[in-house]
Design brief:
binds adenosine monophosphate, 11 helices, 267 residues, globular, five-stranded parallel beta sheet, Rossmann fold, alpha/beta, binds magnesium ion, 12% strand, single chain, 5 strands
Length: 267
């Protein structure tokens, strides 16, 4: 079966076999950019309905290697939506206070409210990624987290949150190009950290941790999508298409208007 981005709970994947290039799926960049613009308008319209109806919640979660395109996806895909109805949370190294609670505490607090879209730039999955690779807690602790996470996401889903999880899949060569670009472009240098190079040396361990995350935490209620992300135009198109489809399925309706509104005369 051809790879279709959305993983299924019954099929395990090998990340090394999944393409990182969008050219394998869509030949024309110009056509993709045209489609993307139309989808962006559709997203703005659907978000307006989501906000007005105030019923559903949508959680869009992004994970990737450094320079995988998380920030840029958020910037492009959500350009044009009403900022009032979207909250973006970027999860950093936990603070002292966050560490004094369980690892899902800060995540649950950031989950989207009714009528809104929550965007997670990194997430609770860091607790089975960086925490695992850097050996921040022993295996006996992090390996239980896959089940905790599935249960947590099940609870969010049961309470009316639609969950879309995107793994931005880039090649090691593409990461090198993007680091190089950050180093040599004045206004991008701030994004570069020497620590990123240390993580790059652990590329294989990270890929293994991502693969386990994808295989252990793909459920019907909270599926993972593996997005070939070497080409930004393909990444943006596929992610916005998936979000628009999810919102079309929810089909949020404008609330009914107050009774007698048709007779109102404004003096
Ligand atoms: P950035 O997204 O480039 O601003 O970097 C955020 C940093 O926070 C990354 O190095 C993450 O690995 C780190 N981080 C996020 N969540 C956790 C966590 N739960 N435990 C340890 N480090 C984390
Ligand atoms: Mg960074």
């Amino acid at each position: 079966m051809p790879f279709t981005h959305r993983l299924s709970p019954s099929n395990k994947i090998r990340l090394a076999e999944v393409p990182t290039s969008g050219h394998d799926f869509h030949q024309s960049r110009d056509k993709a950019e045209e489609e993307f613009k139309a989808l962006r308008k559709r997203l703005a319209h659907l978000q307006n309905r989501l906000y007005a109806s105030g019923k559903h919640r949508l959680l869009v979660l992004l994970q990737a290697m450094d320079a995988g395109g998380k920030d840029s996806t958020i910037r492009h895909v959500f350009k044009g939506v009403n900022p009032q109805g979207v909250q973006v949370h970027s999860f950093k190294t936990p603070s002292k206070e966050e560490l004094s609670h369980d690892y899902l505490w800060r995540v649950h607090a950031a989950a989207p409210a009714a009528g809104t879209i929550g965007v997670f730039n990194r997430s609770h999955y860091e607790d089975v990624l960086v925490v695992r690779v850097e050996d921040l807690v022993p295996r006996s602790i992090w390996e239980k987290r896959y089940q905790h996470i599935n249960d947590f996401e099940r609870m969010l889903s049961d309470c009316g949150t639609t969950i879309l999880k995107f793994f931005l899949h880039i090649s090691k060569d593409e990461q090198k190009k993007r680091f190089q670009d950050r180093l040599s472009t004045f206004y991008k240098q701030w994004k570069f950290s020497v620590d990123d190079l240390r993580k790059r040396k652990q590329w294989d361990q990270y890929q293994e941790a991502f693969e386990d995350m994808l295989n252990n935490c793909t459920t019907d209620h909270a599926p993972w999508y593996v997005i070939p992300a070497d080409q930004k135009w393909y990444r943006n198109l596929t992610i916005s298409k998936t979000i628009v489809h999810a919102l079309e399925d929810l089909d949020p309706e404008f609330p009914s208007v107050e009774e007698g509104i048709e007779n109102v005369v404004i003096e």
